[in-house]
Amino acid sequence: MGDAAMSAYSADALAIDAAAEAARIASAMKSQLVMLRKRGVTLGLSGGVDSSVCLALAVAAVGRERVFGLLMPEAESDPESLELGRLVAETFGVETKIEDIGPALVALGCYARRDAAIRSIAPDYGPGWRFKLAIADTLGETGYAISTLVVENPDGLQTRFRLTPEAYRGIVAATNMKQRTRKQIEYYHADRLNYAVLGTPNRLEYDQGFFVKNGDGAADMKPIAHLYKSQVYALAAHLGVPEAIRLRPPTTDTFPLAQTQEEFYFSLPYARLDICLHALNHGICVAEAAAAAELTEDQTRRVFADISAKRRATRHLHSPPLLVEPVEEIG
């Protein structure tokens, strides 16, 4: 009985040797830069753990003098994101530049187009109001991730609306301008410096399509895309990422109302979703995965189904442009 208990599946399956993994990634980054013929790396700093770990890994790979960080706030950004982005850059001695993308988003009609889509189902929405998108019921009896619009009036009263497909697409399409504008700025500086652009998705985000195509999904290198979120936190502690960043809950920092990543997309806190994704990837049975994630077996089946559904729905985000026939000379 003792041996069986010791062999049971648990979160320990996600444990890594952080020092060895950091060294392996830094070595790979050095080789990739040679292959890309780039002098260094540039990346956006969101104040979150993923971009902070990528910054620390880049410094380990090429030195702080060849890492350039970008802080790209806009009108609806959480001020804490800018503060924590500065903090991690100062911690590792990296040069940064603030690029306010707000004026560009106004010129593109980001906010106006988005607000028009919101008013199609919440007609009173206007100046002084705030909103976010949220999902619900992934673990409930239906198992469907139903998207809702949450609006808050200037007095702080919140109302939920069921989204129409047209309104949802309109809001997301306009909001995606934020990620694509930031990436345009990153590539400007990368071209100017002959640097590579560093992408910062962890395995949950990369696997589940939690990125914008040609936005935060665009990069020359993605050094932590193979790491589960809990493994990223292990690296953060090893690399000396400031505690304030490691303690900050993962957020989208995309909508005016504060919002966690699980509220918008993942439906579960990262520690539980890590276990479910790892278990599914390694053929662990539902019963063992459920016990490790502290979920019921029915809930775990729904999470497995949701993971698979997101993979199918976002497969196109990983795909290069489709050609009529291969161009063999550059294959």
Gist of the model:
By secondary structure, this protein is an alpha/beta fold. It is built from 14 helices and seven strands.
Descriptive report:
This protein has helices at 2-7, 18-36, 49-62, 79-92, 102-108, 110-119, 165-193, 203-208, 229-239, 243-246, 261-266, 270-281, 286-293, 297-318, and strands at 41-44, 67-71, 95-98, 130-136, 146-152, 158-162, 196-197. It is an alpha/beta fold and 331 residues long. The protein has two domains: 17-131 and 163-258, HUPs (Rossmann fold), CATH 3.40.50.620; 268-318. Helix 3 (49-62) links the parallel strand 1 (41-44) and strand 2 (67-71). Helix 2 (18-36) packs across helix 3, helix 12 (270-281) packs across helix 14 and helix 13 (286-293) crosses helix 14. The chain is globular, with a radius of gyration of 21 Å.
Describe the SSE topology:
Layout: H1 2-7, H2 18-36, E1 41-44, H3 49-62, E2 67-71, H4 79-92, E3 95-98, H5 102-108, H6 110-119, E4 130-136, E5 146-152, E6 158-162, H7 165-193, E7 196-197, H8 203-208, H9 229-239, H10 243-246, H11 261-266, H12 270-281, H13 286-293, H14 297-318
Parallel strand pairs: 1-2, 1-7, 2-3
Antiparallel strand pairs: 4-5, 5-6
Q: Identify the CATH class of the largest domain.
A: Alpha Beta
Counting structural domains, the number is 2
Which quaternary structure do these chains form? single chain
Structural class given helices, strands, pairing? alpha/beta
Strand arrangement within the widest β-sheet reads 3-2-1-7
Percent of residues in helices = 40-55%
The number of helical runs is 14
List segments where confidence is low: pLDDT < 50 over at least 5 consecutive residues: 1-6
CATH superfamily of the largest domain: HUPs
Mind telling me which CATH architecture of the largest domain this is? 3-Layer(aba) Sandwich
